[in-house]
Design a protein that fits this description.
It is built from three helices and no strands. The model has no long low-confidence stretch (mean pLDDT about 95). The longest helix has 30 residues, at about 25-55. The protein has helices spanning about 10-20, 25-55, 65-70. It is an all-alpha fold and about 70 residues long. The N and C termini lie far apart (about 50 Å).
Length: about 70
Amino acid sequence: MLSLRLPPEIEDRLDALAERTGRSKSYYARQAILEHLDDLEDVYLAEREMDAIRSGVAKAIPLDELMKRYDLTN
């Protein structure tokens, strides 16, 4: 269970969207959180990998090598 307070202008927009579409405000809040979580997870994974490359723990692979490895040549 999650409870949060939204500024009135955001609450109004969410109310209007829910009313126009026949979906609940909870549906849209859940969708927004899930989408943003996906983005945040991608960012943190990329940052961790960049730190590993910079520190010498991991090695970057050139794009052309990846393309060949996975047979993605045009």
